Amino acid sequence: MSSTGLRDEVADLVQKLIRLNTVNPPGNETVAAELLRDYLAANGVESELYAKVPERANLVGRLPGRGDGPSLLLLSHTDTVVADAGEWQVDPWSGEVRDGEIWGRGALDMKGEVAANAVTIASLAREGFEPAGDLIFVAAADEEVGQGFGLPWLCEAHPEAVRADYALNEGGGERIELAGRSFYLCSTAEKMSSPFRLRVHGRAGHASMPGIADNALVKAAGLIERLAAYRPELRLGPETDALVQAVAGRQLEAAEALEFARELDPIAAEMLEPILSLTFSPTMISASERRNVIPSACEVVVDCRLLPGQGQAEAEVEVRAVLGEGEYDFEWIEGRGGTRSPLATPLWDAIEGFVGELDPEAAVVPICVAGFTDSHWLREAFGTVAYGFFPMRTMDVRLAARLVHSADERIAVDDLELGLECFRHVARTVCG
């Protein structure tokens, strides 16, 4: 493990970051970028601020490489979701330390990882580390909302600043125990965020005489029920196939794998089920603006997630088959993500090497992220091999999952130190 000095250094930095309110919106990430710039400068690391608007800066720090090896980018974001102080045991922007844990909004998502990235590049610079390829640290803005101020803008407007062969980001690293064995999850793919809108048509009328109208809201309810009742075909991708084989010890079909997971552990089933198929979650509805007017139109927004490599054209055929014929219009709102990286790479080997030294009985297994991260921007722009891995073994995985985006978010200092040690190992291995 790292020295007490590095442990204290990373803990101090994450406390300072938590004390900066970077709730998005509005973000105000520049205050965090400036803090990191000053910290890196004091440790001999050059960095630049890139900002589409002044108050929403992205920081890019760099240890230049000799030019004869691959580059590695440590990716993180400085914005957070909102926090209601009335729901917390402590001030969400206090960075208070309790029982070996640092409390505050962003501790897990993801100012802890921001700090570990920063201390990684700073400590290696102090030690005189000269990488073969560039070692890059990006603290991006606007990951939580995605309004075009963060990594997608950097990839488009300043590609030379963020182009890299390999990248480490959020989205994995949890240690879980299944079937009497320990596994560390490394995310190598993510589903596509592919929400769609349904506009259901009817005929307006006075609410006191429902028989003469055609209530679009009632018609929409039927469509919502069909989406909720639908059970899509399950399928295994390379990530889920490798995960299942590692845990089960044999190859299984998708349906068999889900049944195996349910028998094994509820958390295994919760983790596996959403990454075996596309998913529909109706989340927003709007119809009449007056209580006594039957709506002639009703709009439903459905959060839809597609498997990596699954296109919207294919998915639309399936959606329309589920909904059937009717008086509605269908449109995709957006399509972001849905990318994957290969498993057999030097970055994977570096992570496995770290886990092998840390926890020799444990295995690293790939997983697809059901949600969304910034990794896909790098994969799409540059073909970067991007994984999500921030090792965590002190805090229980179930507790950590409940705390992200919720009250009383906190990170164990032991896990913070572990992440720092991992990043230092990976940087030396991949770029060394």
Please write out the topology.
Layout: H1 4-18, H2 30-42, E1 46-51, E2 57-63, E3 72-77, E4 97-98, E5 101-103, H3 107-126, E6 135-140, H4 151-157, H5 159-162, E7 166-169, E8 175-178, E9 181-190, E10 192-193, E11 196-201, E12 205-206, H6 216-229, H7 238-248, H8 254-264, H9 266-272, E13 279-286, E14 293-294, E15 297-306, H10 312-323, E16 328-332, E17 336-337, H11 346-358, E18 363-369, H12 375-382, E19 385-388, H13 397-403, E20 410-412, H14 413-431
Parallel strand pairs: 3-6, 3-7, 7-19, 9-18
Antiparallel strand pairs: 1-2, 2-6, 4-5, 5-20, 8-9, 10-15, 10-17, 11-15, 11-16, 12-14, 13-15
Helix pairs in contact: 1-3, 1-14, 3-14, 8-9, 11-14
Radius of gyration: 23 Å
Mean pLDDT: 97
Measured between the Cα atoms of the first and last residue, the distance is: 19 Å
User: Percent of residues in helical segments?
Assistant: 25-40%
Structural class: alpha+beta
Bulk shape = globular
Largest sheet: 6 strands, mixed
Catalogue the unreliable spans.
Answer: none
User: Which percent range describes the beta-strand content?
Assistant: 15-25%
Number of helices: 14
Number of strands: 20
Sheet with most strands: strand arrangement = 1-2-6-3-7-19
Detailed description of the structure:
The protein has 432 residues and is an alpha+beta fold. The mean pLDDT is 97.
Descriptive tags:
six-stranded antiparallel β-sheet; alpha+beta; 20 strands; 23% strand; 432 residues; single chain; globular
Short note summarizing the structure:
The protein has 14 helices and 20 strands.
